[in-house]
Amino acid sequence: MKRREALAKLTGRERYVDDLPLQDFLWGMTVRSPAPRGRVTAIRFGEDVDWSQFVVVDHRDVPGPNVVALIEQDQPVLAAGYVRHVHEPVLLLAHPSREAVRRAVRSVEVVVAPEPPALDFRITPTPDWIQYGTDNVLKRLQIVKGDVERALAQAPVVVSGTYETGAQEHVYLETQGMIAYLEGDVLVVKGSMQCPYYVLKALQHALARDGPLVRVIQTPTGGGFGGKEEFPSHIALHAALLALKGGRPVKLIYDRGEDMAATTKRHPALVRHRTGLTRDGRLLAQDIEVVIDGGAYVTLSPVVLSRAIIHAAGPYACDHVHITGRAMFTNAVPFGAFRGFGAPQSQFAGERHMDVIARTLGIDPIELRRINLLRDGQTTATGQVIRDGTDRLVVMEQALELSRYREKQREHAAFNATHATRRRGAGLATFYHGAGFTGGGEVALQSRLRVAGRPDGRVEVLSANIEMGQGTLTVFTELAATRLGLAPDDVTIAEADTARVPNSGPTVASRTTMIVGALVERAADDLRRRVGLDDSARGAAVKEAIQRWHREHPGEGEPLFGEAAYEKPPDIAWDDKTYRGDAYGAFAWAAYVAEVEVDLRTCATRVIDFVAVQEVGKVLNPALAKGQVQGGVVQGIGWALMEECKWRDGAMANNQLTNYLIPTSDDVPSVRVAFLENPYPHGAGGAKGLGELPIDGPAPAILNAVARATGADPRAIPLTPERLMELLDGPASVGAQHAAPLR
Amino acid sequence: MLRPYGRPMAALSVSFSLNGSPVTVDVDPSARLLDTLRYQLGLTGTKEGCGEGECGACTVYLDGLPVNSCLIPTYQVRGQRVATVESLDPGALEPFERCGATQCGACTPGVVMTAWWIREHPELLGTHSIRELMAGNLCRCTGYDGIVDSVAEALRETGSGRRET
Question: Most buried of A192, A253, A309, B126 (most Cβ within 10 A)?
Fold first, then answer.
């Protein structure tokens, strides 16, 4: 089936939040902190502005607790006299003219008495940096399997390495934005978001408004990638505060500069490995330390850290594993959810480290992975027994064949011998990604979903899971239609409006198709039973039964619907206290091969071929699935080679697409995609999660390829030409991993 | 006194052709064509992605050439022909639908405008690849394969393009 809303998007008819008609409204904007840390001693309003024309909101206008509700209740809606990062919201302004409000924002001076900011998460904070607990550690986690110290002491070989990854900006093409207005007593907030119920909860909490008095509606969302997971709650609150105080609708749309400066990014990470092995490459012990930069508030860092450490040991069998994780407080703009959610950082380190080990031991990187890849019956770092029937060696072999990896080794040797200034190489990464919330997270979400039967016999899926380009509308349509034997046109997907749809959980964590999609199937079954049919009834029989039900229940207020709630698969168990057990219901498995060419004169790296092979359960919609992988790979190429946040006082200095570069069509090759299918019994139609997996593999595959091509030993991304030049030329290339600090 | 939104401070009256019809608007001297189209003329198909000519989401045709409408002061288009995504024939966009040219859709109208221009000027492929010609339109979702394939397919259907992926 083709993407449902494709034609509306191609013709420009799809209406995003900034496209919606709105009458008699005010434009909202945010006044932000100029300093990374300190007490706000004054707010000066310029005399060149007639302030009586403006709605002005500060922290005293927050009716409830001045907190954006999330994991910890530590982040204010508006700073109350103290700021912890540059761009922290201090004041809100609204005016009918967008130009006037822009000028007014520039006329406000927020005066801050500066205090010493913590700006490097990699080093032990000095006493005057401490602002969270006793040590600035926002969260500490560990995984213990076996006895790693004893195993390391006895290992014939120990290989160590330190790896770093930089922040990454989402660059969804639609910037963030919200509109807010009152409809009678009900506050309505509409906008670009992944999680309508997160926004609802944040509004109810800080505005001290009862459930029915707040309604959140997702508008077509122009990309998210995690950037619209937790952050939209802030904009929703800001727009709502202005609308409530101003008594008129408010539209608050970030321009690109504000969006890049003030919203979250991927957590920077530092990962240290100490690995014990036999001389022929069998893993004996993995000691891994993962440190991430959380920024100035807790936000989602604890769960990002959790996913990072769970994936840190890679898809390998090892009896003795110790992984520690720390999320550090710094006075940086808070980091947040981004596709992969910690796993790309820790797997970049792990997969790059595998090639470092291979080079150290003098064995083939393929052989090293062949020896250690998980076989069915073996366990992950958390003790999860893998027994899904997928042969991970076959996944790798398929990637090697499709990329002609072995032939290319020979071709590259010949190419490099005959070209003075160009070097080619191929690199491999084998990796995995767990789908759905970690551990007991899915149980805690208590997701619910409905499929309603309409008087005309058509059905409507009522879910809080949203379309942001990844294909929810299409896949949910296919799932409901297939289950009930209906035509796709007989299925509609309700707008994600919290006044109508139940809470089926957030649109994150590669959970929408696999977990929520299964609720679509079960709610469809329930609907069929409620109209007196058994599970074999399909097509016309279903439509007629729905129509009959409506004829027999005329004028009933409550419409006809089937319902389903999440039920944990019986064979998985997780202990959050010990971090032991089944971290995810299912893992997707992948092997990616990157082929690069490095220009030794410019030190620029170009990816000239890319092969992505993965086992993701049953592929429900091959075209959409392929598009997800290709998009994720290219986002990964950007993270690996060019996307670099430049920092000034913990804020992004290059907050423009002019100098924060993402790949163009001319920067990347065609991404060749292949799927192996091994249906997952608990996923919708046999599917496993797919959306995040493709961003885990490109960076290590590319850097492994650069290492092969040039003989350099890059340990940090983005591997910009400048950083590669230091590695290839400078004396700094000895022990080079710290040669180019990321921040 | 509040100035009603959309009413310019020092209005210039600008007449031009928009999607084949004459139009006259009163605009502020600093108004961008992008904002005039979106907020004054209600043509919201043209999107703002970056506001500085990097992403191409706001691509329109000015006298037949694709331009970033965020970089064009509205007064400059007086007497000229402006065409937006709303002027394209939806029926001819089927290859873009089939080949996965759109995901989130925010870059899509700009992508479609540039792609359509290539389709109308197949001679460009004698000197440039599709990937080079599309490099002024940033897309964060598709990885570009869906877009490049769509352009190739659209060219093939018009019988004017060489096959390229």
Answer: A192
